[in-house]
Write a structure and sequence with these properties.
15% strand; N-(1-d-carboxylethyl)-l-norvaline Dehydrogenase, domain 2; 10 strands; binds NADPH dihydro-nicotinamide-adenine-dinucleotide phosphate; binds acetoacetyl-coenzyme A; Rossmann fold; alpha/beta
Amino acid sequence: MIKKIGVIGSGQMGNGIAHVAALAGFDVVMNDVAADRLKSGMATINGNLSRQVVKKAITEDARKQALARIALAESMEGLADCDLVIESAVEKEDVKRKIFQEVCALLKPDAIVASNTSSISITRLAASTDRPERFIGIHFMNPVPLMELVELIRGIATDDTTFDAAKEFVTKLGKQVAVSEDFPAFIVNRILLPMINEAIYTLYEGVGNVEAIDAAMKLGAHHPMGPLELADFIGLDTCLSIMQVLHEGLADSKYRPCPLLVKYVEAGWLGRKTQRGFYDYRGDKPVPTR
Ligand SMILES: CC(=O)CC(=O)SCCNC(=O)CCNC(=O)[C@H](O)C(C)(C)COP(=O)(O)OP(=O)(O)OC[C@H]1O[C@@H](n2cnc3c(N)ncnc32)[C@H](O)[C@@H]1OP(=O)(O)O
Ligand SMILES: NC(=O)C1=CN([C@@H]2O[C@H](COP(=O)(O)OP(=O)(O)OC[C@H]3O[C@@H](n4cnc5c(N)ncnc54)[C@H](OP(=O)(O)O)[C@@H]3O)[C@@H](O)[C@H]2O)C=CC1
């Protein structure tokens, strides 16, 4: 029975996962590499819960109870008695492998370990742990408190008990499950990221500027966000990592990351999280950077 959840990484996804798990009544321990990251993750949760209170989506009492259920841990030792640990650190395989090595040594033998990876093979990540049977992909969508879907991805060794427990957990959060086979970038990102990458090629080749491309897809295809706005929202580093996994994993040139995406990432212009990407967010309203 899953009661206590550990979340590794307190960035936009990690703090969103902690938010929805605490709101659903789970005890949560959130871990990150630095105290200031944890502080800002907690501040984001507080702000997003408050918005939900203002919108009458939740009560003030529920907000207070959710906040009280979240503990912060600067060290992974704080995760030792968790029943399920969800890793949501950066989309880099070597970083994730190191995290799993460290955390698995501390956990109860029957604890489940999950990754919120956007694209990396669950089978390969599972093989780097001491418990491939109890390892699974639980892939949330951004922003976590608002998006209805969670993808569940079994590695080759994931057992039925782990899958059923993960499904029950996700259902308790009020989310819908889509089951994906373990292939690069799963379902949502296999479809979404090539579209975003193509939008960046459209910009790179001068077919349209940032505003025209986003307006075209918002007004012409009724997407809630334009593809470049969405890329900034996801994080351009994450977008590039996903394209690289698709390109390498499927060995097809149609997944070649756009050189302009590479350039933005190399500049450290990662989108909203660094205040600059295809838009500059440092002023009153976002201004296109091309
Ligand atoms: C990369 C991966 O691995 C997988 C992925 O996640 S891919 C990304 C998937 N996500 C998407 O495609 C999102 C596309 N965008 C949307 O659906 C919408 O723009 C949206 C749901 C994010 C916002 O909806 P909206 O009504 O247009 O925006 P907005 O009026 O600003 O926000 C509505 C409410 O959403 C909430 N909200 C917005 N952004 C939020 C965030 N980042 N976190 C939490 N809540 C948020 C707020 O409560 C906000 O209410 P307020 O009026 O109090 O601000
Ligand atoms: N962005 C999105 O739309 C989505 C992302 N994902 C996936 O979720 C994961 C996290 O993405 P996202 O939240 O956007 O990324 P962010 O960059 O917002 O957050 C990542 C967090 O993890 C921290 N971190 C890095 N290394 C470690 C470590 N060794 N131990 C603990 N924490 C660490 C980072 O700290 P620091 O900044 O100091 O390095 C940062 O606080 C990725 O795997 C991504 O692919 C899944 C669905 C949607």
